[in-house]
Write a structure and sequence with these properties.
The structure is a homotrimer. By secondary structure, chain A is an all-alpha fold. Chain A has one domain (about 10-205). Chain A is built from eight helices and no strands. Chain A has helices at about 10-30, 40-60, 70-85, 90-95, 95-120, 125-145, 160-175, 180-200. Chain A is globular and about 50 Å long. Chains A and B meet through helix 1, helix 2, helix 3, helix 4 and helix 5 of A and helix 2 and helix 6 of B.
Chain lengths: ~230, ~230, ~230
C-alpha cells in the first residue's frame, strides 16, 4: 500500500510556490520609508518565500535543487510576487484568508520536505528536521536578507512547532505503515490546524526555564556566557 | 558554431576572484571604530566577495564548488585582499577605476554563472537566475556577515538589475544560436554598461507601487502584514 | 603508515555535537527580556552550534550532509541543548570548564573538516579553509540567525585564527607524511592551546593597517568605498 515512489505533483509544488510568492509580496508591501523595497526587492522576497524552503531542503538532502530544473518555479514565484504587489490593497483586506493560506503553505512545504527525505531513504529524525526546515526556511532567509530578527527564534511563535509536529505526524504515520499520500494529507492538516489555533488563541511556547530558580535579570541584556 | 563545452579559463576566473578580493578589502577598510576589522576579517570579506558568488552558483547547480578544487582560488582571493588592505590609500584615489572594475566583475561572475548553468543543461530562466545570484551573491554574503542592510534589497541600486539583464542577454543570444563565447562577451558588456550608466546618472528602479492609490504611510514602519 | 581511509569515529563526532549543543544552550540562556528564547529557540541554537559546522563542511565538499544520514546527530544535539538549558545554573558556575571544552570542540570540528577534505582528495589550501569553516561555521550561523554581530569578524577574537592554525598544522603534518590520526591529534591540541592562551592572556590580532599613514577617522563610520 505504501508507495515509496511518491512524487510531489508539479501543480501542487507550483501552487505552494505561488502562494509563497504572494505571501512574500504582501510582506514586502508592509515596508515604508527608508526600508521600502523596489519591485526587484519584492520579487526577491517572493522567490525566497516561494522557493527558499525547497532550496534548503534539497541542499540538506544533497541533491540538485529541483526548483531550478525547470522554468516554471521561478516564473510562478515571480509572477505571484508581482501580482501580490499590484493587488496588495485587495489582499490586505483578505488578511484572514492570507493567514489561512499561509498555514496551508507551511503544511505543504513541510509535507513535501519530509516525504522527499523519507523516499530518499533518510531516517525518521532527519526527515522531520528537513521537512521543518523546508517549511520555515523561506521565512528565515527573508528575515536574514531583510535584516529583521528571525521570527521563529523568539517567544510568541508556534510557526515552527506547527511545522515540526505536522512533519512528525507524517513520518510517524508512514513508519506505522500508512500510505505516504494519506500520511502527507494528515500531516498538512495537523500543521494547518495547529498554526491556525495558535493564531486564533494567541498560544505560544513558555519561555525557557532552568531547573533551579534564579534571580531574574530584569533588563534586556544579551550577554552570552561564553564569548567566542 | 555553438560550443557547449565552453569552459571558463582559469586565468579569467582567477582574475574575477582577485578583483573581487581587492574590492572586498577596500570595502572592509572603510570600517572604523567599533566596527573595524582585523586583517582576518579583511581576508574573510575578500574571500566572500571573490569566491562567494561562485560558491552560491555551484550550490544552486548541485555540483561540488569548483573554487575549492584547487589551491589557486583561495590564494588569489587572500593575496588580493591583503594587497588591497595594504594599498587601500592608493586604491581609494582610484575610486572611478574601482567602480569600473567592479562593474566588469559582476559582469564576469554573471556570465560565468549563466553559461555554466546552460552548459549543465538547465533551462533558460534558472540559468539567468543562477548567473544573477553568482554576480551579487558575494555582496549579499558580505552584507549579512557584516550585519549591514543587504544593499540589493533597497531602492537606489541597479546592481542586481544590471547583472540580471546581462545574464538574460547571454542566455537569449545562446538560445538564438549565438556561440556562447560571443554571447558571454556581449552579456558582460551589457552588465558593465548598465551598471556604469546607473552610477553615472544615478538611475534607480521606481519604488514598488500598488495598482490602487492609497494614503501613503509617512513614517518608517516595518510592520509585516502576516506575522509568522 | 598514513591511512587515507581515516574515518571520524561516530562517538567522537557525537561528542563534539553534544558539546556544541550544550554550548549553544548556555549561549541561549544568556538572553533575557525581549530577546529571550523559547525552548525551541534554545534547541535551534544547540543544533546550529553542534551540527552547523558539519553541515557547512559537507556543503562545501559537495557531499550529502553526514549529520543527516542517521538519527543520532539531531537527537544528541537536541538532548544536549535541553540538558544545557535545564542545568544552565550549574554550567554557569563551571565557566572555565566550558571555555576549555569550547576550545576542544573547535579543535575537533576543525580537525574533522580538514581531514575529511584531505581524504576526499582536495588540495591543502581548500582543506584548511573547509576545516576552519567547519570549526567556526556553527557560531557564524548562530550569530546571523540571532541578529548579532558575527563575532569572528571583529577585532578581539583569536577564535578563527586558532582554528585555522590547527587545521594548517594538521594539513602540513599530513603533507609531510605524518599519519592522519597523529596529525589530527596535534592539530586539535594546537587549536585548543592557542584558543586558551588567547582567552587567558586576552590576545588579539592587531587592527588592519594600510602601508601609508593617514589621518585616522575618529568616529565610528561605516561608509564603504564602493557602494554597490
Amino acid at each position: 500500500m505504501t508507495e515509496p515512489q511518491f512524487v510531489i505533483p508539479l501543480w501542487a509544488d507550483l501552487t505552494a510556490v505561488g502562494l509563497g510568492g504572494v505571501q512574500g509580496a504582501l510582506f514586502a508591501s508592509g515596508f515604508r520609508g527608508r526600508q521600502r523595497l523596489d519591485p526587484l526587492g519584492v520579487v526577491i522576497i517572493g522567490i525566497l518565500i516561494g522557493m527558499g524552503g525547497g532550496l534548503i531542503r534539497d541542499l540538506l538532502l544533497g541533491v540538485p535543487p529541483v526548483t531550478l530544473q525547470s522554468n516554471w518555479y521561478l516564473m510562478t514565484a515571480t509572477s505571484a510576487a508581482l501580482v501580490g504587489m499590484l493587488l496588495s490593497n485587495i489582499f490586505q483586506r483578505l488578511n484572514a484568508a492570507i493567514i489561512g493560506l499561509d498555514a496551508v503553505v507551511i503544511g505543504l512545504f513541510g509535507a513535501f520536505g519530509t516525504s522527499k527525505a523519507l523516499v530518499l531513504g533518510l531516517p525518521i529524525v532527519p526527515a522531520i528536521f528537513i521537512g521543518s526546515c523546508a517549511a520555515v526556511g523561506g521565512s528565515i532567509l527573508r528575515d536574514v536578507i531583510m535584516g529583521l530578527p528571525v521570527a521563529i527564534m523568539h517567544v510568541g511563535s508556534l510557526y515552527a512547532v506547527a511545522a515540526a509536529v505536522g512533519c512528525a505526524v507524517l513520518a510517524g504515520a508512514t513508519a506505522l505503515g500508512a500510505p505516504i499520500v494519506v500520511a502527507a494529507i494528515v500531516g498538512i492538516a495537523v500543521t494547518t490546524v495547529i498554526r491556525l489555533l495558535a493564531v486564533v488563541f494567541d498560544i505560544s511556547l513558555p519561555e525557557q526555564r532552568a531547573l533551579h530558580r534564579r534571580k531574574v535579570a530584569v533588563e534586556t541584556s544579551s550577554i552570552p556566557i561564553v564569548k567566542p
